[in-house]
Amino acid sequence: MTRGTRRTSWAEPFKIKVVEPIRMTTREQRLDALDEAGWNTFLLKSEDVYIDLLTDSGTSAMSANQWAGMMLGDEAYAGSENFYNLCESVEKVYGFPYLVPTHQGRAAEHMISQILISDGDFIPGNMYFTTTRLHQELAGGTFVDVIIDEAHDPAGEHPFKANVDLNKLEDLIDRVGADRIPYFCLATTVNMAGGQPISMENIRDLHTLCQKHGIPVYLDKTRIAEGAYFIQQREPGYADKSVAEIVLEICSFMEGAWMSSKKDHLVNIGGYLALRDAEVFEQARNMVVIYEGLHTYGGMAGRDMEALARGIHESVEDDHIAARVGQVVYLGEKIAAEGIPIIQPVGGHAVFLDAGAFLSHLDQEEFPAQKLAAEIFLEAGVRSMERGIVSAGRNKETGENIRVGLELVRLTIPRRVYTQAHMDVTAETIWEVWDRRDSITGFEMVHEPQYLRFFQARFKPKD
Questions:
Q1: Where in the chain are all domains bearing CATH 3.90.1150.10?
Q2: Has 143 been annotated as catalytic?
Q3: Which CATH number fits domain 2-56+319-461: 2.40.160.100, 2.30.120.10, 3.90.1150.10, 3.40.605.10?
Q4: Choosing from 161, 387, 410, 453, which is the catalytic residue?
Q5: Location of each CATH 3.40.640.10 domain in the chain
Q6: How far apart are CA 23 and CA 38, in angstroms?
Q7: Which residues face 351 on adjacent strands?
Q8: How does DSSP assign 246-272, residue by residue?
Q9: Spatial separation of the C-alpha atoms in residues 297 and 380, rounded to whole Å
Q10: What are the start-end ranges of the H helices in 239-367?
Q11: Fold type of domain 64-315
């Protein structure tokens, strides 16, 4: 906020009631931890981490109201009261009449992929996400990226880099036929492009084009509140609308959506598939019994569903989301002020370091983002994660590494967990690594899992 022409600091819209101790380790201890973990930050033990920015998935702090709801868990195997509270919250906030709960978002991705995709189908989307693309491929489909070209420019200042290139989509429809496209896979913020948002105008135009060809639009609703906040702040005509109103408008264009509630909804576990189509709902409700649990709990305890039902409402509060995104922007601006290359504009859930530019002397086959994440941990115990060639995986036909255009390290901020002082320490850690960047050497991969290798791959330094 401002007073006249003088800027004053913003403050988080909450008080801290419970604290969890964390400890700083020595450089020698961190080196041992990295060696034991195969230099993969996903394989580090939590107790060895000082500031954990690996992910915002399931790592947020719940509110007093959510914790109170945990005490009201109805743990009946069938027909839990908390399930019906969850259904009511989803319909009120997002407008979807049908709900299938799951233990987390990727289970919902699996179900919708198995239900809608046939062998040989093509699924267009605004840039891939790792688990989503894998579920589509396992169902026999092929993901096709139709995001605008600006999404691949780290330094570009386009306000809506997640926008769909409608010409690319029309070219795909002309090439393969609309009957081979079971749905459009849309994300309101694109993780792999740096948490970048899509505009409401583009959503509207996409819906019109897909309706013309009979293609339903399904939404990856993860971090939808952050995407709505950027629309509110950047898109003409939305400054006077609440985040909740914008979220509801986004969902009005969707046939269905899946959600990893471990992000926006401020819970440690949970997700769901929300639908308008009664036939698809019936198939999903049958499938969830096989893979997750009964259709009225889907892998969650009653207490978790109650915390989720309450977190849905908290997630679209304007004060909350402004503070959440504000903390991310604060860290990004502090890092960029030292001339360190990051994805611009700063996204809503994380600061993405441009590892390709940061370690420009390394070839992408030396896994610069993976090495940079390891070096950041070695410097001060700050854990981040790779989003580049390791995450992209291998070409199914040639077996070669997919050399993606964006080689990134993600510093992901959990919601309501860390203070501004933690952001300062993180920024100063990045500065220290930046100062010694020319001495950093690359990696060799010494263990590679078959699927989603970034979770469990192991490396060793080339030196």
A1: 2-56+319-461
A2: no
A3: 3.90.1150.10
A4: 387
A5: 64-315
A6: 22
A7: 411
A8: HHHHHHHT-SEEEEETTSTT--SS-EE
A9: 41
A10: 243-252, 278-291, 302-315, 318-336, 355-358
A11: Aspartate Aminotransferase; domain 2 (3.40.640)
C-alpha to C-alpha distance for 203 and 199, rounded to whole angstroms: 6
Q: Which of 321, 346, 413, 9 is nearest to 194 (CA)?
A: 346
Is 130 considered catalytic here? Answer: yes
Torsion angle, alpha carbons of 172, 274, 69, 11, to 10: 30
Active site includes 454?
Answer: yes
Largest Cα span, the chain: 62
Contact at 8 Å (CB) between 447 and 458?
yes
- List beta partners, residue 409: 353, 386
DSSP character string of 390-450 = HHH-B-TTT--B---S--EEEEE--TTT--HHHHHHHHHHHHHHHHTGGG---EEEEE--S
Report how far residue 126's alpha carbon sits from residue 251's, in angstroms, rounded to the nearest whole number.
17
The percent helix, strand, coil of the chain (3-state, each to 5) is 45, 15, 40
263 as an active site residue: the answer is yes
One of 94, 96, 122, 129 is an active-site residue; which one?
Answer: 129
Among 41, 130, 188, 296, which one carries the catalytic annotation? 130
pLDDT tens, position by position, 48-95: 999 999 999 999 999 999 999 999 999 999 999 999 999 999 999 999
pTM (predicted TM-score): 0.93
Exposure class string for 384-405: b at 16+ Cβ within 10 A, else e:
bbbbbbbbbbeeeeeeebbebe
Which helix (H) or strand (E) segment holds residue 273: the answer is strand 271-275
User: 405 phi and psi, to 5 degrees?
Assistant: -75, -25
Q: Is residue 208 annotated as part of the catalytic site, yes or no?
A: no
Give 378-428 pLDDT, tens digit per residue. Answer: 999 999 999 999 999 999 889 999 999 899 999 999 999 999 999 999 999
Here the tokens at position 277 are: 């189509």
